[in-house]
Amino acid sequence: MSSIRSVIRGVGGYLPARVVTNEELAGLVDTSDEWITARTGIRERHIVAEGELTSTMGVIAAKAALADAGLTPDDIDLIVLATSTPDQTFPATAVTIQAELGITHGAAFDVQAVCSGFVFALATADNFLKGSTFKRALVIGSETFSRILDWEDRNTCVLFGDGAGAVIVEAQDQNGSMSDRGILATCLRSDGRYRDKLYVDGGPSSTGTVGHVRMDGPEVFRHAVSKISEVVGNTLKQSGFQASDIDWFVPHQANRRILNGAARKLGLDPGRIVITVDKHANTSAASIPLALHTACTDGRIKPGDLVLLEAMGGGFTWGALLIRW
Ligand code: UT7
Fold first, then answer.
1. How far is ligand 1, taken at its centre, from the CA of residue 218, in Å?
2. N or C: which end of the chain has fewer CB within 10 A?
């Protein structure tokens, strides 16, 4: 039985030029390189320059993904941007990216699921491609968290960074089995009872301001491993694979301890986890495509590999995707 699968055609990533080390932050708030490294695995983050926006980074990552795929903007008929830091409240930053790429057909919109945004955006694009509404989607995660951080709050400002990553997915006819290339299983979850555990204390309809990131870190941590395990377990069950079948585990890059904890609980080989959080901290919706870009560029992820993505973030939202590369 044939079926349409969303197959990854290209990957791109972009990090702003300015690198801010843990030592530099120790001059700003009461923290230390030792504390940040031991508690999170983060060593440095990249911060946007003046005038550099979520759309600016998204366009660069998108162009890199197009080049990787050997495609042009004309080949794209859907753009889904995952971001919690749009250029403006509206219009969607995806339409700015669409215009800057010179695309005047198809559709573009933003998806907001904070750190789970990329998983939600890719699952959304997958459904549109499988439903034959569109043929090729550009799925981007781009964030300028540096602009919504309280730079006097050591609980949050040391954890986040800016960046963008993008993938191109294409609808392709496959044979409908688990040996197909493309997205094989998805699982998305949210539970708004936890919305005050990780949030921004402002917004258009509440304060009329943008606000700053606030987080009950230990509480997020407490839920992370079990929620990640739940959705990963679900995608494995849907597909009939075991944890030992996974070639590469590419998690949302928030905290090295969470990634290792989830991998341990799931019985995943630690050598198969792609970890980039040391290089760019938590870039929210951008972290998974940035990690994918790293692991594709350095030759770890190859066509045919079974790749598992997962994320958990504000809302709470959490989700996982299983892809045959
Ligand atoms: O991507 C979205 C999901 N977000 C996450 O996954 C984040 C989840 N949470 C975490 O990663 C961890 O909870 C943190 C890294 C945020 C914090 O680590 P923790 O081991 O949970 O530390 P804690 O919050 O329990 O704080 C321990 C101590 C406290 O001091 P006292 O009360 O023990 O004296 C904090 O005030 O560490 C202190 N602290 C810091 N010290 C130095 C908090 N932030 C810092 C800091 N530098 N930056």
1. 7
2. N
